[in-house]
Each structure stands twice: as structure tokens, then as C-alpha cells.
Amino acid sequence: MRKLVALTVGLVMIPASAMASDLEELLERGHEASYSAEQIITCSNPDGIADAVVRLSQSGGDLHVAAPVSSDVEITTGYGGWVLSQAGSVVSSTELDSSEDPADPRYTVDDGTPAAFLGRRATQFEMRDGDTLRARLIFDNETGALLKALTFVGDGEVYCERRFIAFNPTPPTIEMVEVDNDNRLLRSDVETELPEDLAGFSRLDVYSDEDGFAFGYYSDGFFSFAIFETPSVVALDEASQFQIDHGVYRVSYSPGQVIYVWETLSGGLAMIGDLPPDMHEAVLTGLPAPERRGWLGNVWKSLFG
Amino acid sequence: MSHPSVLISAYLDGELNRDEVGRLLDHLAACGQCAAELEATQHVRTAVRSLPMMELPGGVVSEADPVVVPLRRNRGFLVGAAAATAAVVIAVAALLTPAPTSVTVSDLNSRFGARVSLDPAFGPAKVVVPEIVQVGG
User: Fold this and answer.
1) Can you tell me the mean pLDDT for A204-220?
2) Nearest chain A residue to B117, by CA
3) Contacts of residue B124 in chain A, CB cutoff 8 Å?
4) Looking at CA atoms only, how far is residue B71 from chain A in angstroms?
5) Nearest residue to B90 via CA among A302, A231, A264, A265
6) Cβ distance A120 to A147 under 8 Å?
7) CA B84 → CA A97, A213, B87, B91, distances in Å?
8) Number of C-beta neighbours around residue A226 at 10 A
9) What pLDDT score was predicted for residue B22?
10) Which range is least confidently modeled, A55-59, A180-184, A213-217?
11) What are phi and psi of A193, to 5 degrees?
12) How many C-beta neighbours within 10 Å does residue A121 have?
């Protein structure tokens, strides 16, 4: 067993001796691999099963995600960029300037075992937090592409399964969408009350926005989430209530992702991430509790900040 | 004209105009009862006005010493004015205050997705699938 130092973005900064493992080589190759695939995502959320089928195309580190079944929505992402387009028109986009060094992972990874998937030679790795299995990853030996990923809740039940159902290891043609850079965010030194450490996650960096909200990005070396400080509560359609001792939240699940929103005396907070459900309460409890400000409070805030 | 007691008092106070005075004097000339009432009222007024002014010793009407009626009236006015001003300010502020910037789920997805793409673990295991792409659940 060894620490998951392989899951660091600065692979070139890691001493060569530390890069010798199979996993590190696979990750590096997988990041640069060119392929196209269809992936099915199935997640067992507290409100039921959520699933999606997406078409992936990766070339030179840019990942293109499309939903072949439901709509003409496409996402192109990679290297800090994110573009959501529909019928060829940009719906929303963000470009981030830089990121902080990765978090120290809290997981250990085994040495890997031979596996087969989609008729291809592969290697399976398991990630554990102490004795708790948190992820099982199967990489294609030739390309380094992650063919299958299982993530687990603390009791051993599967939280999400992401598996390729078709894989073509030939370079795809990705048509990049023209985007202006008016939504380019810089990593900020803005003062924030967001905690540096939160339920085993480390705050890696904070970004601020001209629209008046900031967000901090947290990671534990594999799972990650962002906490947004917003001027008002984010509207969440088709949300359900999530109640803990700390307060009542609105929550919405989508395949592999959860969003919580709640009101505080200073505005609104939102959490969006891919962490398993058994980690949610600890994260929420470490943040300001839900509290309604009321009409007079809104006027006071507008007058005096 | 019936017995105009009210007019008699007003006459003594100099509040009647010339026509009213003329009509009252005509009535007094014909009505002994009213003439007597006029005379009696005049005597009472003269007697009251002839009383000597007395200096009240301090504390006799202690509750009345702090002459607060005008002051209370002013303070009430000030409080009311202040409350009205505050209400106007709040109302104007509420009307003029621009609505807070509306942050959408799409904004959150976009920013989180961009940041995840810088994550070392980025790849098919961390592809952010927004709700818009959802096909089941």
C-alpha cells in the first residue's frame, strides 16, 4: 500500500523515482490519451437512482462530453475551461486561470491487479480510507483511459458506477466551440470565511467573481466539491429537503453530482460536488447554518452591506 | 328670538358683529329676564377680575411643576417624524435597491466543472454531468 501521490496534477514536478508505479504511468498516459467512448453513469442517491449516458471524446487533454440520447447539449472541458453549448451555441462558459497545488490525499492505493474490460487488458486499483473502500478504478493498459470507476459510501454500498460501454482508442476530431473570455476567473486572495479544512477536505484555492460571489474548491485527493458564497440563494428546481441537526437544506442530485443550497444571514451558500452521500453531513456541519434573513434584513444589507 | 344666553356671553366677550349686537340689544330692551342675566353675568366677571393675584408656594401643585405638555407634544412630533422618515428611507431603499445578482445552477456547474478539469483526478471518473444532460432518475 502506498499513498495516492500519483493523483497529483504536477506529475512533472514529482521525482522520477516516485513516478515508477503503474498507476502513475497510467494516469499520465490517460490524461494525454486520445480516444472516444460511450459511458454510462449510474448513481444511487438518497432520493433514488440517477443515470445518464454520455459520449466522451478526449484529445490532448481536452475532454468533450455529449449526451447522445437526450439532447444536443455538449460540454467541452479541460485545463480549467468549461463550455456548455447547445445546438452549437454557447450557453455558459468559464475559464479558470490557475490552481493551487493538489491536496494531500487521505487514501491509500493497492499495487494493482490484472483485469480485463471490454476485451482489453486492464489494471484494477482500489482506494481505501483506512479500512474503508472508497473507489475501485480500472484503467486500460494501452491508453491509460479509465474504463470503469466505482465509488462507495462508507458502508460498502456502491455510490456511483461509471463504465465505458464502448471504447475506440483512435484519435477523435473535437470541434472546439468559439468562446469569448469574458468569464475568465482568476484565483483570488479575497478574504473569505470559508474554512481551510473541512471534514477531511482541504481548501485548495478561492476564486472571486465580478458578479459578486466567490467560491472555494476543496479536495481530499480524489473526491472534491466547491462552496459558493452567493449574494442570494440559488434557485434549485425539483429540489428536495435535507434536514440535519444543523438545519434544513435544499438538495438536488444528478448523476455523479450533488448540489445543496441554503440561505444565511450574509446571503446564500451552495455546495456542489461528487462526494458520496455519507460525507455530506460532516461538510455541511462545518459551514454556516441555514438562517433566514428576512425582508428587513435584506434592506439592511442593501443599505449597509 | 328666544332667550339668547349664549349671545349674552359672546356679547360680553366682544365676539358679536354689529348686526348681532343690534338684535341682542333689541331683545334685551324687551326681555327683563335676559337683561337681568346680562347684569348678573357682568357682576360675576367684574368680581373675578378684581380678585388679587396670589403667589403659589412651591410644591403645592408639584405634579404640574414640570410643564411638559408642550414638550411632550414636541417629542411626540419628533418621534413620529423620525419614524416616518425611517419608513420612507426603508421604502425608498427597498424600491431602489437592485435585486441581488441572480446566480443560477448553470453558473455553479460551469465554475465547478472548470475547476474540476484542473484536478489531478480529472477524467472520466470526475466528469461533471449537469442536470440538463440527465436522462433518467
Assistant:
1) 85
2) A78
3) 37, 39, 56, 145-146, 149, 162, 164
4) 32
5) A302
6) yes
7) 51, 35, 5, 10
8) 24
9) 85
10) A180-184
11) -95, 5
12) 11
* Res A91 pLDDT > 90: no
**A99 contacts chain B (CB < 8 A):** yes
A138 CB-near residues (< 8 Å, 6+ apart): A115, A117, A122, A123, A124, A125, A146, A147, A148, A149
- β-bridge partners, A33: none
The partner residues of A95 in beta bridges, in order of sequence, read: A81, A184
Radius of gyration of chain B (CA): 42
Q: What ipTM was reported for this prediction?
A: 0.85
* Rounded Cα–Cα distance for residues B53 and B35 (Å): 31
Q: Give the whole-angstrom CA distance, residue A165 versus residue A163.
A: 6
Within 52-91 of B, beta carbons closer than 8 Å to A belong to: 90
d(CA A217, CA B136): 28
Q: What angle do CA A161, A162, A166 make, to 5 degrees?
A: 135
Q: Which candidate from A9, A41, A270 shows the least CB-CB separation from B129?
A: A41
Contacts of B88 in chain A (CB under 8 A): none
- Reading the block at residue A213, the C-alpha cell is 460571489
The average confidence (pLDDT) of chain A is: 83
pLDDT at B134 over 70: no
Instruction: Name the pLDDT band for A158 (thresholds 50, 70, 90).
Output: very high
| Residue contacts between A and B (CB atoms, under 8 Å) | 212
Cell numbers representing residue A51 in the block:
443515470
Indicate yes or no: pTM above 0.90. no
- Judged by CB atoms closer than 8 Å, whether chains meet at A232 and B100 is answered as yes
CB contact under 8 Å between A63 and B101, yes or no, is: no
Q: State whether A37 and B124 contact (CB < 8 Å).
A: yes
